Amino acid sequence: MNIRPKKHQILGLLPRSIVQTHGDRAGTGRFLSFDDGPHPEHTPRLLDLLAAHGVRASFFVVGRHAEQYPSIVERIVRDGHLLGNHSYSHTRFAHMSTADQVADLERADRLLAAFDGRARHRIRTPQGHVTLPLLLHFARSGRSLAYWCYDSMDYHDDDAAVVVRRLQTQPPRAGDIVLMHDDGAAGMHALAELLPAWCRDGWTFHALEQDAACE
User: Fold this and answer.
1) What's the pTM value of the predicted model, to 2 decimals?
2) Is pLDDT of 143 > 90?
3) CA–CA separation, 132 vs 134, rounded Å?
4) Are 76 and 110 in contact (CB under 8 A)?
5) From the candidates 8, 35, 81, 189, which is the catalytic residue?
6) Distance between CA atoms of residues 215 and 21, nearest Å
7) 35 included as an active-site residue
8) Helix, strand, coil % (nearest 5) of the chain?
9) Residues 130-150, buried b or exposed e (16+ Cβ, 10 A)?
10) pLDDT at residue 82 greater than cutoff 60
11) Among residues of the chain, what percentage have pLDDT more than 90?
12) How far apart are CA 211 and CA 190, in angstroms?
């Protein structure tokens, strides 16, 4: 398992206007991002943890889950986190045409607009699937896809201690966008142990910025 996938290192060579894989490398900022929620149990507990440490993050939510748990999405926005688009259905994009992928993302955009008033949102595709036609579509639309350069692999392990050891052994660097998930407990429990130490060490945590096209 590789916390820094080669695919995303290659994507990082593309202009920020097309794909973002990391934030500002100067300073002490890290960028936590959470996929696949909202979850009725895990997401509220994660939001409590982030609030306790003054941490802002990015939540790439699944549209159909947002429909089920709208009050959690409202809290994500109220707490100052970025609300991102992780598709409506979370169907495997590898099995869909580009037109169907775009339609699924646009359906999620319309749903999320009711929560934050934005017509369009930062996008992270399911399983990080990306093709040249999809990149070209969003480049023509003036939008960039939000990826990551550090994979916590919290979805591989139910044991938070394993995730903690991984993050301590190979810690995120300044500017890293860290992929985590809020539909399970392992990542949240790992952060409960790590965030106090990281904050004491001077690390700061930020939400990703909106694209100008998302304003």
Assistant:
1) 0.95
2) no
3) 5
4) no
5) 35
6) 20
7) yes
8) 45, 15, 40
9) beeebbebbbeeebbbbbbbb
10) yes
11) 83
12) 30
